[in-house]
Amino acid sequence: MTSLTINGKEYKVDATADIPLLWVIREQCGLTGTKFGCGIAQCGACTVHLDGQPVRSCVTPAISAEGKNITTIEGIATDKNTLHIVQQAWIEEQTPQCGYCQSGQIMSAVTLLNENPSPSDEEIDAAMSGNICRCGMYGRIKSAIKRASATLQSSNPL
Amino acid sequence: MKKWTRRAFIGAGVLAGGTLVIGIAIRPGNRSSKVAGLIASEGETVMNIWLKIAPDNTVTAIIPHAEMGQGVHTALAMMLADEMDADWSNMKFQEAPADKEYANYTLLKGFIAGNATFPKFIEETIDGVFLTAVKSLNFQITGGSASVRFTGQQAMRIAGAAAKSMLMQAAADTWKVPVDELTAQNSIISHPSSKRSATFAELAPAAAKVNIPTQPKLKSPGEFTLMGTSQPRFDIPAKVTGEAQFGMDVQVPGMKYATIKAAPVFGSKVKSVDTTVSSSQQGVKKIVNLGDAVAVIADGYWQAKTTLDALPIEFEATENSGLNQEEIMDRYRKAMDTDLADGNLDTHFKDGDAAKAFEKSTILVEAEYQLPFLAHATMEPMNCTAWVHDGKCELWCGSQNPLGVRAAAAELLEIDIDQVTVHNQLLGGGFGRRSETDVMKQAILIAKEVEYPVKLIWSREEDTQHDVYREATISRMKAGLDESGLPIAYAHQFIFKHHPPEAADIPYTIPNQLIQYSSPASHVPWGNWRSVDHSTHGFLTESFIDEMAHAAKQDPFGYRKSLTKDNSRFQRVLDMVYEKSNWGNPLPANWGRGIAIAQSFGSIVAEVAEVEVSIDGKVKVHRVVCAVDPGFAIHPNGFIAQMESGIIYGLAAAMTGEITIENGAVAQSNFHNYPVTRMNEAPKIETHIINSGNPPGGGGEPSTPVIAPAVTNAIFDATGIRIRQLPISKNDLRASIRQTT
Ligand code: FES
Ligand code: FES
User: What's the domain range around A70?
Assistant: First the structure.
């Protein structure tokens, strides 16, 4: 038995040496917001945070996450009834199309804004180009990041 | 079979604004009771098969289409609510059950008959024929950019208007006042002069007994309150919290996981595999040989996948096992030559005498184009959860065609269709791929071997290598121009004709045309790929007209404009894209501008791409201006999103999209060797809608066909190099090459 801390909650899971975190999160913990897209760190759909840093959970061994804080899309808002600023911006820009990539997009955007609250277009491109959106909603993802950035600026005046 | 009487079809055909709208909003016979069992719960009144009213005055639209992110649930509910004057804040939707009652005959008819207007006397016959055809075909497809065009116009709006008229009649009867003194707003019917009012819910039971109106009056665009506005989409909030449930996310108690490896060469079979599960294979439940594929069932996907990867499987060699892409294209060329020589070409369109006109031409333009196979690469890999038990079959999947899935399952298991249930889920991209039933059939065959439910998940590799592909094609095009540069002859020899049937037509006025095609054999499975045949013909027609314009030494915009003089919709769309793109304004060095226009699925789309080609040959698409006439955009923001989506999808294909065959099998496997457009490669897109008042056109597909030619025409403008073979990445565009071209 391996013990994982996901969104502040402890889960006892059955992890073989090589099983990627993605499958443990989805199948054993039942948190299906984190998606499978490629399995080889090419698409970003499976992005989660390990101690605040984005990782591709499809190539991250589950056992390597033991003792770390794992955050998934289900855990970025402070509680069930509120949305993270980034999620809010995503709704306001009507960003998702099919939505399948969006958990990963949001997880990448949250890290970007944590590290750089007012990114330029080029910085957004650089941070987000590991996340594929087959519905091609890149323009809206970018607008939503800028909207979230603006909200952050106005809520934390420097 | 029950005879369709005239009474039976009242309500099926109504005259609205001078155009005959044929709807199935209100079906004959008392079907409501059967349908009620499918869609209604305690206390709800089913007004017709498309809507119900709950005691709390909530109106629910029953939407017979799958949500792939095109916002169909929202747009169709808006159409119904608007006609009904229902309170939008109290409006819900529910996806229709996969049932024959919702078999989408309006859609099929739309495909076959277009927006034809039928004389009253044959309308009933036509409806009868189509309805029968659709029922036997089990057709409930989301595709062909058709939801708003057909279901929305011909079911949702009529259903809403009919329900409102029945509610009004019920109020008039109850209050003993003339119906035309009543008003409806926000799900309340009022009689202003006596200050009486009642909610839809209060009136619903009485209204359901009112005779179905023969001609519910539809609103004119000036009366719309919801149509034409961008209401927040129903499906979005759950898609930012991770709660949205896709086929991949289904969890059924007791379920196990499976993954599969099909014979790499299409049509090949498993020669040998050891299906014994050894005790060392922890968590592995069963190995299943399906004849043309091998699947492993395990406690989790990872165990299944690693076991399958390590499993020695031998596949039979077939006549195609040594076949490579080059040979396929050679075969196609030979078939075209032979068909031409033997007079065996099929004729798509003929007008005048092209051969004679070519002789009289001053300038001849000739070119051969080549296009690759394309995979769909939906973001969500293929999957389906199946449970076969007690003579029943339950399926959980995201399908563009749930009723087709039901029928396929019934046929496969030789059980009655009523024993099959399909729980349709959100689709992580469809693009035509999820109108197939292959994955569901595999899931059923695997689940049939065990008593518990099984979720079959395809790896991305399986998804790439066992898709149904956009055809690889070759086209030979020829035009003859007179001394003024105007075309007097046009010939096009292409291969493979699927649908829509008009895809190879050209929108340009050219006398003397001969358009023909061959259909060579191919072992690579074909499938609907976003915009289908328009995805090839959009590129072909719009590249070649550009070549003609340059041969005639004319501006590509002006040339298109002068050859579509009689088409006022084309003229407006061209003018719009000209203005918004600043056509003709100078661009930096190594930049170019290209234009393309096409009509597909009832919408006309023009795009202008601004492209930079660096000295070392790298292409960067900076900006795409899109002008579109969809007749009327029901949900403008959602429509714009679909234009953007279709452009990026088509751009990915144009830039790098290529599936090749090596030794009979697909050579590509995942996003590293089947690359798609990423954010840093995505252009800025500006979309401008023209609501021309024509019948509504589709949104999901029409922006895709024109992006490739807009970009390659821009590359020509920048470099003088004409791209006749896609993807663009196959072409050497370095500056050193340009000099010599
Ligand atoms: S599934 Fe992990 S990066 Fe694609
Ligand atoms: S919204 Fe569909 S893949 Fe991004």
Answer: 2-75
